[in-house]
Recover the amino acids of this structure.
């Protein structure tokens, strides 16, 4: 961790960073190349058959559209080369095998449950997830999503509540499962002292490269940005508005002047030009540290107990064991009665073995852990702006819930989340009292391990 720097990377293996990843990436890239070539060839053959039919029927009036479609399809593999170069460059310090697709039978992060500190391979190591999150966090098609989720849901909700209680200082904020880091950056720009934790090695490597690219970007954002065609790899051709939209590039990273200025000041500080300054004296924003690790294993330890004023989870709690997640959030929040947890995102459980708690259940579980709901509303947004290409984008009407941790919840019963956390989340009532064994919640068929 670089001292005096507002953007710090904690626990990144610097030696590993320098290892080359060329062969490791090859299989995943090769796969997309093959898939896109296949898509183009199939399309070409289908259109040819249509053309033959038309000729037999004595009409070529549709040929113009067919020719244009065929010519466009032929460009796909060529444009993929650009994507490949950008992705290789952004993830250049990543050195593990790169799979292709996200799987919703994800068994990643089993390490958290087993108590092992070793990070397991995650679905968020995939090339597909990398492209989706680049678009969501750092591309122009993700702008509406970022506005809806990061600004209007997260930051505005926090600001509204802090103003309502007359709180002017922003405090320490933790972003578990930070993805490619944009939410963490926006919170830091807004003045919080942010710590982000992310378990995917390729996400952390890419985030690091993105932040330095963003910090060196010119006013117009072009000189140091990289091109990416975010819709090029979509292999379903149904529901498309205009095939040519696949050839509209985004420039990565897409960043506004406020965030760029904040990143530039933090960068110049880390380069030593202002190394004695604290983060608040460098710019009006706060600071950002990034940790590569598993949230539960890294933060459910004595050193992190009560360290944070705010925890923000965005599209995160369904990716791991929810109970361990709530327990860890509770563990690292301040116990003075002002600790806040802002959760936004769906309940699209990634593990086959997850208990599929509803939103109402989550609120009850949180209450059992000592959280009271301050506000609860729904936010409508796509995942990464896919509606520009497809008529059937992935849309979410997700809850955005602000909780406050009551002062009487006391400290965590144990720094280990594995078995004791499950008991304590069940055992601690809203006012910190023990819940009777025959309470309605426990009377379900849910068996505690
Ligand atoms: C659905 S993505 C959301 C990313 C980001 N919060 C956003 O809103 O774009 C979930 C992220 O959580 C990370 N993640 C999942 N389990 C984790 C864990 N146990 N510890 C840290 N990060 C984790 C994944 O690698 C992924 O980047």
């Amino acid at each position: 961790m670089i001292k005096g720097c507002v953007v710090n990377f904690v626990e990144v293996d610097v030696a590993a960073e320098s290892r080359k990843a060329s062969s490791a990436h090859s299989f995943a890239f090769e796969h997309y190349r093959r898939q896109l070539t296949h898509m183009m060839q199939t399309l070409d053959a289908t259109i040819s058959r249509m053309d033959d039919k038309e000729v037999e029927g004595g009409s070529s009036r549709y040929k113009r559209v067919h020719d244009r479609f065929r010519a466009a399809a032929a460009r796909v593999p060529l444009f993929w080369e650009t994507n490949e170069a950008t992705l290789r460059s952004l993830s250049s310090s990543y050195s593990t095998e790169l799979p292709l697709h996200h799987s919703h039978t994800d068994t990643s992060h089993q390490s958290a449950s087993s108590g092992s500190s070793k990070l397991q391979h995650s679905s968020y190591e995939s090339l597909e997830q990398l492209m989706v999150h680049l678009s969501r966090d750092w591309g122009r098609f993700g702008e509406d999503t970022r506005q809806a989720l990061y600004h209007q849901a997260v930051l505005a909700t926090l600001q509204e509540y802090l103003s309502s209680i007359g709180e002017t200082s922003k405090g320490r904020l933790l972003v578990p499962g930070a993805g490619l880091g944009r939410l963490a950056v926006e919170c830091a720009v807004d003045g919080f002292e942010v710590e982000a934790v992310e378990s995917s090695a390729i996400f952390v490597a890419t985030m690091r490269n993105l932040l330095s690219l963003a910090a060196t970007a010119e006013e117009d954002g072009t000189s140091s940005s990289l091109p990416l065609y975010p819709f090029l790899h979509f292999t379903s051709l149904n529901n498309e508005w205009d095939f040519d939209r696949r050839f509209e590039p985004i420039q990565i990273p897409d960043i506004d002047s406020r965030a760029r200025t904040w990143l530039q000041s933090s960068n110049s500080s880390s380069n030593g030009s202002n190394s004695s300054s604290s983060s608040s004296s460098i710019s009006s924003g706060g600071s950002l540290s990034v940790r590569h690790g598993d949230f539960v294993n890294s933060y459910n330890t004595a050193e992190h107990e009560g360290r944070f004023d705010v925890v923000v989870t965005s599209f995160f709690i369904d990716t791991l064991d929810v109970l361990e997640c709530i327990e860890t959030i509770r563990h690292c929040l301040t116990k003075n009665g002002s600790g806040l947890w802002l959760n936004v995102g769906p309940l699209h459980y990634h593990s086959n073995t997850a208990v599929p708690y509803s939103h109402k259940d989550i609120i009850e579980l949180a209450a059992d852990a000592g959280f009271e709901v301050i506000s609860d509303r729904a936010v409508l947004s796509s995942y990464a702006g896919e509606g520009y290409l497809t008529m059937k984008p992935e849309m979410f009407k997700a809850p955005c819930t602000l909780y406050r941790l009551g002062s009487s919840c006391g400290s965590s019963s144990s720094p280990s989340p594995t078995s004791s956390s499950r008991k304590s989340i069940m055992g601690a009532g809203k006012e910190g009292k023990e819940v009777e064994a025959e309470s309605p919640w426990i009377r379900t068929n849910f068996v505690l391990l």
About this structure: The mean pLDDT is 78. The longest helix spans residues 22-56. The pocket of S-adenosylmethionine is lined by residues 109, 112, 122, 124, 136, 176-179, 183, 197-200, 203, 294-296, 314-316, 319-320 (CB under 6 Å). The two ends are 38 Å apart (CA to CA).
